[in-house]
Structures are given as structure tokens and as C-alpha cells.
Predict the structure.
Amino acid sequence: MATIDLAPGDVIADIPAVKHAAIDSMSAYQSLVDEADRDHEAFWARLARDHLTWHRPFSRVLDETNAPFYRWFDDGLLNASYNCLDRNLVNGNADKTAIIFESDDGLVTTVTYRALYHRVCRVANALRNLGVGKGDRVVIYLPMSIEGVVAMQACARIGAPHSVVFGGFSAKALHERMVDVGACAVITADEQVRGGKTLPLKSIVDEALSFGGTDGVRSVIVYRRTGGDVAWNAQRDLWLDEIERAAPDTCEPEWVDAEHPLFILYTSGSTGTPKGVQHSTAGYLLWASLTMRWTFDIKPDDIYWCTADIGWITGHSYICYGPCAVGATQVIFEGVPTYPNAARFWDMIQRHEVSIFYTAPTAIRSLMKCADTEDAVHPCNFDLTSLRLLGTVGEPINPSAWKWFATEVGHNRCPVLDTFWQTETGGHMIAPLPGAAPLVPGSCTLPLPGIAAAIVDESGHDVPSGQSGVLVIKRPWPSMLRTVWRNPERFRKGYFPEELGGKLYLAGDGAIRDARTGYFTITGRVDDVLNVSGHRMGTMEIESALTANPLVAEAAVVGKPDETIGEAIVAFVVLKDVMPKTSADAKAIANELRAWVGREIGPIAKPREIRFGEHMPKTRSGKVVRRLLRSIAKGEAILQDLSTVENPGVLKQFSHPA
Ligand code: PRX
């Protein structure tokens, strides 16, 4: 199958490569890698010409004059929604199913490419009628739905960058993002339904707007999901179905420069405020569609299902843009994997005959646990023979979860693709190619062609294979983020730090390369970013939320390894008043603080454990000793030298959660 140099001791999964894949051998992979090495610009120019439809072709490929603010294909004109929709009307896909939507309670709705195109055109026209134009930002706060894709594509059609906010974020978090991005309109739903429970999205939007500073928001467009009661501001609020019905069903796309921002998506960094990652139109779309072909080997008959939410980058690249750009049929699911029971995924794969299934390691680990204890929800009860490829994303997948997924779900027939990438990278960076690379559980294998991934030490020098270091990308690539919205300095300093020479893109993850195979394994974040159930959370963001509470004097947050969710949030808190006197007091305050964090950020940021002490353990120079806090959170004996700690006595107080 492949020519990679694997020694007898290497653990290699015994799963055959898929046949007739887009990249069907290691030599085909290598020849693309060589092509990119020989002439990086010519390589990307060829792909951009072959895979995107241009309104005006580009003549310049890469402009590095203002590095690291790279520009790709910048004199070309195109439209992302044209590439995702109109193209499918003329290439034989018009009557092909674009989306099979399944609601939380199991209702299935399908939409063809033609119908999707008309819906997008109507909403795009309606937005234009409301005065939304090229460059205006629209916040989208919607549940998983066909309407979510329609809203995003409609924004793209008129050149209005969208900023999707995950439906699990609180009014405060939504407000912060609306203000930072300078939204002129919001698209939301009356309610969201997940796992049988409803969440009042419209009233969260109303609350967020009541905080002020959002005068730019002239319209709130509401998708009627449940028909539940909502407060109404007749000057500002509009029903999506009404404005859609009133608008014409064709809409001339806004032809935008290749570099025009397609969207801004907020993500957590190592400082307190989330950053608006800005992506371009052409470079981003090129990679979203190309990786659909390279990594997912998408074919016309595939039924593809990515379980991510459109509020995260995975839902942008591998639900809204990538699948439509290649004319795929995809499943979109409103609910959660455990409702009505933990067999929901397997049941849906069987019913919709899913062939490519892309999900998060956390989901696999939790479903694996359920299947262990309850026979009825074990995947063996379902016919999963339609599957041909499995993929994971968002966090490391431990070999035992990998093997369970490969064996119990994929019956050792389907390659498991552990895809490493980030909000900032736009699409897959290091991932196995199902027709080429032999698989090793726990490794995301090799960089995709054109991606110059490397591992360096703290001063930017390559480390030898077998030695861990930090992951960098040495050359710009088309789908990289362009800047941090309204904060170019944060972009430059955070991603192209001077300490590494100012030219290497710093991913923020540690990695190690196998000496024989060259395979990469990601070892986790090297900054203060946590990965909780595949969701990225900044420790400082949670600390700021905690210290905003009037009871709290100081807070420090660390991650604690967790078998199912990857990392659990542990908060160390010093109260302004005296320590809680009884354990009941401590529990009550901890619950209050947890609820507070839920309101400040969202339920995903609630600490699992809160520990109280009289002072924060600090060095004599006043720095919180996080290293020690991590050991305490893990329940490890403190063997470190404590001579530099100002107040080692407090460590004992923190040894138990409230
Ligand atoms: O730490 C890495 C982890 O998720 C981070 C990126 O998070 P986010 O921007 O939210 O994007 C998630 C979806 C692409 C990375 O810095 N991560 C993502 N994929 C993997 C991973 N860690 C290990 N293995 C992966 N396959």
C-alpha cells in the first residue's frame, strides 16, 4: 500500500487504505509535497485555478511585502456562495440533496442544491433590503439548522462577513463579541432545542443588546424554530420566514477581492478576551474544499456527516463551506449524541446510510463508556456497513478510543483520520490521507501537501526527530488567518513571535515527530489554553469571569486531565472575606460561582472543581505557581522544591475541592 519506512515495532493499524482515493498512494502524496517544495506559489496557484471559480482570475499569487500579513491571489474576484451554490446548479447537482437535516426529536427535512440556492438568495436580498452591505458584520446566533447554513451563505453572497457565536455562549459572551465585531444585524432563533431541552436564544440576544454599546445593531432576524413566546421590538425585530417570503429568489452575488474577509470567528487565547480570527474568502474556501477531497476523499455518492456545531470552525469549514463547495450531500443534526439515548449517532448513521463520519474524541469516549455499560446502545446493534471513512477533530484521540472507534464503529474497514488543525488554520493541517498513509493510533501522521509543519525549540531552531518541541508552520498557506479583528498587533505578536524570529507561525501546541516515520503526535497546548470536550477555553478568560464576582479576590484556573472530556476545569479561589467556615458553606459558594461563570461565559466554562484558600500560592516575585496548582489539581504529592514559594502553607488548604 505505502512506502513509508515503518519498523517492525511500530504500532500500525491493520486497516486497508481506501481504493481510488484522490491521493491514492504515498508516492502520489510525495509528488504533491515535492511539487509544493519546488515552487510553493505555482503549486497553490494551480490548485486555486483548478478548484475555485473566479469572476476575475488572479494574476498575483502571494504578496509577502507586509509579512506576516500575507495576501493570496489578491487581484482575483470571486464569491464564496457562488462557489458553494451556483456552481452546483450547472454541474448536474441542482437536484441533488445538499442537506439532510435531522431535528432533536427526529424529524427529517431535506433540501436540494437548487432549493438551498433560492433560500440563500432570498435571505441575501432581504439582508440587502435591510441595508446590510459589503463589509458590514452580521452576528449569527443560531442552533444547528438548515437556516444556519442559509444565514452564513447569505452573508457571504452579499460580502457581509459573518461572526457566528456558539449557541451555548451566554448573553455576556455574546454581547462582548457583538461589540468587538461591530455588528449591524443579528440572526437568531426563537429557541434552540437540544437533548429535549429548550434554550431561549432570542431572549439571550435581547439581554445582550440591553447591555448597551450595540447601537449599530439595526435588525434582529428571528428564525421561528419552536414557535415559543418571544418579546418583540417592532422597530428592530423581523421573522426570517416573513422577510424570506417577501424577497426575490435570485440574487446577484457581490464579487469580492480574494482577501475580502469571509468571516470573523472568536476563539480563546491565552489572555482574557477572546480574539476575532479573521479569514479571507479565496484562500479559506480553497482549503475547505480541497481538504474535503484530499482528507475526506469525498465522492458524488457519499453521505457525509460532521457532528460539529456551526459555532466552531469545524462547522464553518466542514459543514457550511467545504461540503457545499464540492457538491456533497451532508447530514446536519440539531441535537446531542446522548438523546434520546447514547445510540443516536449509530442509529442516524444506519438510517441515513452515512459513509463519512467526522466527530470529536470526547463524543467517542463518552459513547464508548455508555456502550460498555448498556448493551442496547452498543454500535454492534446497528448496521454501519455504509461507513467508509471515520474522522476525529478538536483534541488528541487516545489510542484506546481510536481503536474502539476503528473496531466497533468502523469494523476495521474504515480508516480513522485524526485531523489536527485550528480555528486559525482554516482547515486540516496534519492528517492522514485515507488512500495513502498507513495509520498509527494516536498520531495525526503527516502534514498535508503544501503545509510546511515543523517542530522547533524555544528559539525557533528545528529539534531532531524523537524530541518534543513546539509546532510551527514555516511558510504561509492560503487558508491561514489574516489577522485578529481590530488587533493586528495581537496577531503579529501572538502568532509570529519575535523569539522565534518573527517568521514562523506558532500553533500554540507541543508536538513530537517519530524518528522513523516522521509522523507527528500533538502533545497538547503549550500556553494557557485548555481543551475541554474539544472546546477551546482560555484560563485567563475564566479567571477574569471569576474575579468579576464581588465575592472573589483572586482566582487561578488550571486544567486537570480527564479520561472522557480531555481536560476538566479546576479553579483556585481566594475570597475577599474569610474562608468558608463549613464544607456546606464552601459548596454553596462554589455553586454560586459556577453559576456566575455560566452567566459570564457559558455553561462550557463552568469549573468542575472550585478550591478555596486564604492566599494564592505565589513565588517571592508575586507570580502564581501554576505548576504547583496543576499538581494539586491532579492530586499528586508535592515533591517540588518549595523554597521559592512565598506562602507554602496555603497549599494544604487547596488540597480538596469544595
Ligand atoms: O490543541 C489543539 C487541539 O485544538 C486546538 C485548536 O482548537 P480550535 O481552534 O477550537 O479548533 C478545533 C477544531 C479544529 C489545537 O491547537 N486540537 C485540534 N485537533 C487536534 C488537536 N489536538 C490533538 N489532535 C488533534 N487532532
Q: What stands out?
A: DSSP finds 17 helices and 30 strands in the chain.
